[in-house]
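tool=predict chain=A
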Amino acid sequence: MKKLILLLLTIITLKSAFGQKDRLGNPIFNSKVISEEKFDKFELTSSYYLIDNNISNKESSVYVSEKPTLTEYLKFSRELPSYGFVIHQGGDVQYMIILIQEIDGSNTTLSYNIVNSSNGKSIQVPCKV
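tool=predict ok
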């Protein structure tokens, strides 16, 4: 848990200090919508955060270099989230969910970080896949 908090704080700090922002001041982290599901009372949008359109894109808030090395690709893919989900009702975001990887040597565990957009509080739930 401490590693996750440190990782998220580092990402936020780096995005603020060095990251690119759109016209509204939001960090640019390129993703591709992979599905949009509609249920009775809410919608679920699933996105994949692209490596190629982020690691070598100067406009991305997680830019590494114009010609990243294999080591930089591996580090990027192991340390940053690759899947995100938004639960919303129309344009109102209710919850954001990010699949987080925790690396301990050669072992990787997964968990979901679920953020309540109305109060900013989050919980971490183990992923048992």
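The CA atoms of residues 44 and 87 lie 5 Å apart. Residues 2-18 form the longest helix (17 residues).
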